[in-house]
Design goal:
The protein has helices spanning 5-30, 35-66, 76-87. It has 88 residues and is mostly helical. The chain has a single domain (5-87), classed as Up-down Bundle (Methane Monooxygenase Hydroxylase, Chain G, domain 1). Keywords: Copper.
């Protein structure tokens, strides 16, 4: 199953935001910022990545639910479950 354009755009937007946050963390480390500030920003990066993953999975689920009966992969429920578990 592939991401549809709207889902792909949303996931890319979240990933770009996470990349910007990660660049910020690198700069913080290079500038000897406080550990607490660095860890806080790392947590934000992690949440952003998690949100991107959830968006990708939810988009896939929506596509499966909106697909014609013949277009839905037989094992889509198992596939979605595995994807959700991989984020947990």
């Amino acid at each position: 199953m592939k991401l549809t354009d709207p889902t792909s755009d949303a996931v890319l937007k979240r990933l770009r935001r996470a990349r910007g946050q990660l660049d910020g963390v690198i700069t913080m480390i290079e500038n000897d910022r406080e550990c607490r500030d660095i860890v806080t920003q790392l947590a934000a990066v992690s949440r952003a990545l998690d949100r991107a993953g959830v968006k990708a999975i939810s988009g896939g689920m929506r596509d499966c639910l909106n697909a014609e009966d013949g277009d839905v992969p037989e094992d889509w429920e198992d596939e979605m479950e595995k994807l959700f578990l991989s984020l947990a």
